[in-house]
Design brief:
By secondary structure, this protein is an alpha/beta fold. It is built from 13 helices and 15 strands. Its cofactor is (R)-lipoate.
């Protein structure tokens, strides 16, 4: 079997694509170099050719589905040339009727009640709409091309929230700012909820998700003051952040999950687990905060001060055992992901959670009270939080120390981390928490 994948489509920093059309059906013969599937990025359509000759065995990414870069779209199995004549004629006849380019523009439905098979929207608009529970089919695009863009989604969101803001204005308290959630994967089983580390965002999990595969449902959380989530002005503890995340998960209808937290997100994950507001099947912590007082205060200060690539790069190097990961593109992407407002919000958050370069919040006792399958994963070369903090977990917590790995195991060793996360989830199923 040979996988059909898309890598780096639409530019170096694309995280996902949307499948526009398949030009072959399972069982059809396809020649090496022949157009087999078209995907769409935020910028343009990309045509993917068959890497080898053979029979299209299966299609794993359906039309309209958004998938991460590197995801297997389908597979091609070995096939004899004799298989080609049986499918060559229909394929040739279909090409003039359905060329790739017009697939980007939806065709008007034949009757008023019919709906197009795929909504023409940018990947970014799809992500934001999904995270905010907005139905794309109800949006009238402002673009002459008929494509729904981010501005259209945001306009609907503003109109929808206007009466809500008015109705709560007279109440005693205001609701917490909305937290951005991004869904990935097509699995229908209990989702994995991912909480990122300080200064990162939900898309920092991309290397891990590419390994985990689209068969597992994933929810990427942007913590307050990170990614697309607004700052939480009164956040002064892991519990405050956990409360905001719990509210967002509840409002989105996520009542149970496998929880994965890295660094800052690890401390928040412990706090969220203890609240009981979301039913946990398993808890996986990656170099979590909250299990000891030490932390690299110089890193926090330097990262928060940095506003240029030259000043940011030395601090990013501390995150990894492999310095080649911190390429110029990686540094620029990190800068682009953090605007001035977020930089200030993160500086304030770091001062409250880690005053004077010390972890002020103790989560070891809380972790021991969490009665679900637990794993802790730590890089032996971590220079941000000492791996010996893992010893502060309870006696039933499995600890995995990864050699030649720094503070970002999910980036430096994604295959190992993915395997351990799934292993923990399966363990939860065997213990009666339910299958994954």
């Amino acid at each position: 079997m040979t996988d059909i994948t898309v890598v780096g489509a639409g530019g170096e920093y694309m995280e996902s694509v949307v499948v526009v059309s398949w030009h072959k059906t399972p069982g059809e013969y396809v020649a090496a170099g022949e157009l087999v599937v078209t995907v769409e990025t935020a910028k343009a359509a990309t045509e993917i050719e068959a890497p080898v000759s053979g029979i299209l065995a299966d299609i794993r990414a359906q039309i309209g589905e958004e998938v991460a870069i590197g995801t297997v779209l389908g597979t091609i199995r070995d096939g004899t040339v004799e298989s080609a004549p049986a499918t060559a004629a229909p394929t040739a006849a279909a090409v003039p009727a359905a060329p790739a380019a017009p697939a980007l523009v939806p065709v008007a439905p034949p009757v008023a009640t019919a709906r197009p098979t795929r909504i023409n929207a940018s990947p970014l608009a799809r992500r934001i709409a999904a995270s905010r529970g907005i139905d794309l089919s109800a949006i009238v695009p402002s673009s002459p091309s008929g494509r729904i863009k981010l501005r259209d989604v945001e306009a609907v969101d503003r109109a929808r929230e206007a009466p809500e803001r008015h109705s709560v204005a007279s109440g005693p308290t205001s609701p917490a700012p909305s937290i951005s959630l991004t869904r990935r994967g097509s699995g229908s089983r209990t989702p994995f909820v991912f909480l990122h580390g300080f200064g990162a965002d939900g898309f920092s999990w991309q290397p891990l998700l590419a390994t985990l595969g689209a068969d597992h449902a994933a929810v990427l959380v942007d913590l307050p003051g990170h990614g697309r989530s607004p700052a939480l002005s009164n956040a002064g503890s892991f519990e405050d952040l956990a409360s905001a995340v719990a509210q967002a998960l509840t409002e989105t209808g996520i009542g149970e999950c496998h929880l994965v937290g890295h660094s800052l997100g690890g401390g928040v994950a412990i706090a969220l687990a203890e609240t009981g507001r979301v039913a946990l099947r398993s808890l996986t912590l990656i170099a979590p905060a909250g299990l000891g007082p030490e932390i690299d205060g110089d890193f926090l200060d330097g990262f928060c001060r940095a506003t240029r690539a030259e000043s940011l790069r030395p601090w990013l190097l501390r995150l990894f055992a492999d310095p080649s990961i911190v390429s110029p593109g990686y540094v620029q992407a990190t800068l682009k992901a953090r605007g001035e407002d977020h930089r200030r919000a993160q500086t304030t958050l770091a001062d409250r959670l880690f005053p004077d370069g010390t972890q002020a919040w103790e989560m070891r006792a809380a972790l021991r009270r969490v009665a679900v399958a637990q794993k802790i994963i730590w890089g032996e070369c971590d220079r941000i939080i000492p791996m010996r903090h893992a010893l502060g977990a309870g006696p039933e917590t499995a600890i995995h120390l990864l050699p030649h790995v720094g503070h970002m195991p999910h980036v430096e060793a994604p295959a190992t981390v993915a395997r351990l996360i799934l292993q923990n989830a399966r363990c939860a199923g065997r213990n009666g928490a339910g299958a994954t």
